């Protein structure tokens, strides 16, 4: 309890906003966490099953999860609010046999200066036999200065027999340059799911580089990358998938291009076993409005549109550009419990204790907000809902 109060006192309004954008939190979470701000530890909590230890040989932490740990989570957000702050952090995760946990990471940068702010993060995962991890990572940048926001995440995954990892990575907005590297190797009966979402605009640059070795029989990889490139931004997608056993691998890259943006996709499949089955799919281009039959919206933090970090004005601009004139449907998830809340892992109340009347009013305000920002370039993009 003491550490919870200490973190609340130390965190300023900018850092609180960054925390909500990258981790979906408007308060310090229950369970294990390590919050890093401007190169220092802002707060930490451990549990009986999850330990967090500061490295002694380089900047970073070790997260150690005991075998058999289930229904627990770890939050390790990084916040940079000082212009010109640059760092490289190494975090290692040791997931014990049979554990089943959720890990929420991500980095938020607020840069109102002229210097470059940069975060390089190297996350290495060691999953023991039959361990399961759901890993969520979000990147977000903001600020009205001339300094660049740069993030270069590297994720390395080692999966032992029967282990499973699901990765959900999202670049929300405001990142001028990023090189995203993911490497993995899988033993027998292991599986890896990767879902990537990226949006670039202006002169931003994003490179994705996947390299996976599928080494064990009956192991599988499913890699799906979705992106939108606007303005004069550039995106590059590289994937290397090596099937070294009787395994299955699928990679998919879908990119929407707008204005003068540029996207390259370079897949490489290597079947080194007669029973390896590898597939790649790619689609790059402009989507015509008559091909889009339904548009489903939601915030990056699962709250109502307008209460998170999604670039709704740019999304509305894209819909207008392709002539979309059909329905827009929103489906926020703000309460835990029930069948749906359990299925999608909503483990905390995001409504701040709102009653049914308050929820109805919030929903109506969110609909009005979307109609406003989707209506045209003169709309007010500053959310009144925050």
Concise synopsis of the structure shown:
This protein is mainly beta.
Structure, explained:
With 386 residues, this protein is mainly β. It has two domains: 287 residues, no CATH class; 98 residues, no CATH class. Strands 1, 2, 5, 6, 8, 10, 12, 14, 16, 18 and 20 form an eleven-stranded mixed beta sheet that branches. Strand 21, helix 3 and strand 22 form a beta-alpha-beta unit.
* pLDDT averaged over residues: 85
| Structural class estimated from helices and strands | mainly beta
Q: Provide the domain count.
A: 2
According to DSSP, the number of beta strands is 22
Assess the beta-strand content as a share of residues: over 45%
Query: Rounded to an integer, what's the Rg over CA atoms?
Result: 21 Å
Helices and strands, in order, run as HHEEEEEEEEEEEEEEEEEEEEEHEHH
Main sheet properties: 11 strands, mixed
CA(first)-CA(last) distance: 27 Å
Count up the helices.
5
What does the overall shape look like? Answer: globular
Helix content: 10-25%
Low-confidence stretches: 1-9, 378-386
Which secondary structure elements does this structure contain, and how are they paired or packed?
Layout lengths: L1 H9 L2 H11 L8 E6 L2 E6 L4 E5 L5 E6 L4 E6 L2 E3 L5 E10 L4 E11 L6 E11 L4 E11 L6 E11 L4 E10 L3 E10 L4 E10 L4 E10 L5 E10 L4 E10 L4 E10 L4 E10 L5 E9 L9 E3 L14 H10 L6 E3 L7 H6 L12 H19 L12
Parallel strand pairs: 1-5, 1-6, 4-7, 5-8, 6-8, 7-9, 8-10, 9-11, 10-12, 11-13, 12-14, 13-15, 14-16, 15-17, 16-18, 17-19, 18-20, 21-22
Antiparallel strand pairs: 1-2, 3-4
